[in-house]
Design brief:
Blueprint: H1 7-13, E1 17-21, H2 25-36, E2 40-44, E3 71-72, H3 76-84, H4 89-92, E4 93-96, E5 99-101, E6 107-109, H5 115-124, H6 131-146, H7 157-161, H8 166-181, H9 190-201, E7 210-213, H10 217-220, H11 222-231, E8 235-237, E9 245-248, E10 251-254, E11 257-259, E12 261-264, H12 268-275, H13 280-287, E13 291-300, E14 310-312, E15 323-326, H14 327-330, E16 339-345, H15 348-351, H16 355-369, H17 378-381, E17 382-393, E18 405-407, E19 410-412, H18 425-439
Parallel strand pairs: 1-2, 1-12, 2-8, 12-19
Antiparallel strand pairs: 3-7, 4-7, 5-6, 9-10, 10-11, 13-16, 13-17, 14-15, 15-16, 18-19
Length: 443
Amino acid sequence: MDRADDPLARAVTAPRRVAVVGAGWAGLAAAVQLVQRGAQVSVFEMARRPGGRARQADGAAQGFDNGQHILIGAYSATLGLMRQVGADPDALLLRQPLALVDPAGRGLRLPPGPPLPAFTRAVLGASPWPLASRLALLSAAGGWLARRFRCPADWTVQRLCGHLPPVVLAELIDPLCVAALNTPMAEASAAVFLRVLRDALFSGRGSADLLLPRAPLSALLPDPAWQWLAGRGAALHTGRRVASVQAVGAGWQVDGDRFDAMVLACSATEAARLAAAVNPAWARCAAGLRYEPIATAWLRDTTLTAREPMVALPPGPLAPAQFAFDLGRLHRDPAMQGIWAFVASSAAPWLADGQAACGQAMLAQARQAFPGHFRGADAQVLLHTAAERRATFACTPALDRPAMRIAPAIMAAGDHVDGPYPATLEGAVRSGIAAADACMTPN
């Protein structure tokens, strides 16, 4: 009998059928990796377009994203995936050395060069911090380095850094903590914070560089990845919420369609719903995560030009946002000229009175931070406000995060899945790649 007619031979050589539920950055990373490894892939996304929490928002005024995101040079997996699907990071991202400077241009600027000397020079040159404060930060960083950026799992960032001078806490540690972990210092995991600092500031030349989007978020990865998958025969479904997952022999059924393996790359809440009958303990862990919101307000001022495209905003009791972005300097689209994005991480207190009130608070903050700017009628200055109320999980000490493996041939992917990083784009991409590889490895 000819080998082509042998049922056993066909079974051995047939592509592995894998379902990916969710087309955020983790799901897209998983799908691309699966296709690269020869799988026959079907992607199910409940929204109308891919990208999850980092994409161009549907129907938003002027094509705003569903929030402002930044990348850093240490995001090697994300940058590699962008290149793989034909998105050029050099054209789509503005790369520049890390600068955490206020509206007057004062603060921390990391010069080019090897990480340790660059960090030392940046701290010593940070103005207007007193010399004693700069030396205290260098001493603390030296201690973290000596301990290989490790600390007890139950420590908070407040416990790790509480001895530092108030100016260092207010103008560096706190904004870095809420930007990276989206969790207040008093509640944030010091162990995860140290891992982020190690990989961003001390892992290699350029790892701390800011990579600021120069195009809508969907152009960075979601749209190119979607087109790449379509061009390689993946079955792509949008506007489809998966109703059920059931075990069938050695495989799985997704709404009655059989697959050899599956990646649940949807939100932790959706994954918990689908996995409840498969692994109740895993589902309880995923469903038990607590979340922190992020709010973004887009404001217009055609007369304002800052020293940097990203500005660290002065902290204070009436200051919800930590950073502001000059989108006119970043985007090539003329429609974005004069538009600024103000971003408030860990924004729950500011959203307590509603999204509109949060936007008004950021408008007032903008007028305070940039005297003489953002004037005129509120409706003409405050263009749009968005809030992701479940933007990231609260990254607290010794947090029990759901494991990648749910059951044989069913894996979880997403920035919430157990790993060394907080909820970041890089964490999501790495998780998706790892889940895809696990699906292609015999149990």
